[in-house]
Specification:
six-stranded antiparallel barrel; four-stranded antiparallel sheet; 22% helix; elongated; 3 helices; alpha+beta
């Protein structure tokens, strides 16, 4: 409903979460934040991005699809006719309140989120001519996971990346072939842009178990530390 759409967008605004849109067939990414959600008048205001070319490309569109990423879901909405206005003494973009908003939950097959403290690095295509570094962000017991990497690296769905080296916090590593399934632009917590590729990790079962074990151990260690700290404070 219109009320629910406005409520969810207002939650995004209050949390100051970045929203983004792919432009020019994925060649550019527009990253912004919501400035105002006006349900009674039926419009939203968003801030300009830091990229002049992305701003111009967005204003030239008749319709635009935005994404906002949460830990458990992606919120997507489509709106139309972006217009440049002035808001509180600075330029902003006005768009109609979207007629629909979709919350796309993560797949039912559970994935284990990799905490940043684990520093799980991946040297992708380590046997290839131009290897690059990525960060593994999640993985499932079925071998499906995601990597995040620099926007200047171009991967296409179906790309096979053999002998990618996944480095554990203790310095040890396992090798896995990565099969790229899909790629999308994302906005990171600091507002910068990156690319996320959903991949199939093809490796020996023992190595996949080791990979997951590292994540579980790291998460468990952090949980124990938080619990101990809380107990000390209570004492």
């Amino acid at each position: 409903s219109r009320i629910e759409i406005a409520r969810m967008l207002e939650e995004i605004r209050r949390a100051n979460k970045p929203i983004n849109a792919d432009l020019d067939g994925g060649e550019q990414i527009f990253i912004s934040r919501l400035l105002l959600v006006d349900r009674s008048e039926g419009f939203i205001l968003i801030d300009y991005s830091t990229s002049k070319s992305a701003n111009a490309a967005l204003l030239a569109l008749k319709s635009v699809a935005f994404n906002c990423y949460e830990s458990s879901a992606s919120i997507e909405f489509l709106t139309q006719s972006p217009q440049e206005i002035q808001y509180q003494g600075r330029p902003a973009i006005r768009l109609p309140l979207p007629e629909a908003l979709v919350r796309v939950h993560r797949r039912a097959h559970p994935r284990i989120q990799v905490p940043r403290s684990a520093s799980l690095r991946c040297i992708v295509d380590s046997a290839g001519a131009v290897p690059f570094e990525a960060r593994v962000t999640d993985v499932s017991p079925g071998g499906i996971g995601s990597i995040v990497y620099d926007v200047h690296v171009h991967l296409e769905p179906g790309t096979h990346l053999p002998r990618s080296k996944i480095i554990f916090p203790n310095g040890r590593a396992v090798l896995a072939d990565l099969e790229v399934r899909h790629v999308r632009s994302i906005a990171q917590e600091d507002g910068s842009s990156a690319l996320r590729a959903g991949c199939r990790f093809i490796t020996a079962a023992r190595d996949l178990k080791r990979l997951i074990r590292v994540f579980v151990k790291e998460i468990g260690t952090r949980a124990d530390a938080d619990s101990q700290e809380s107990g000390n404070q209570a004492a």
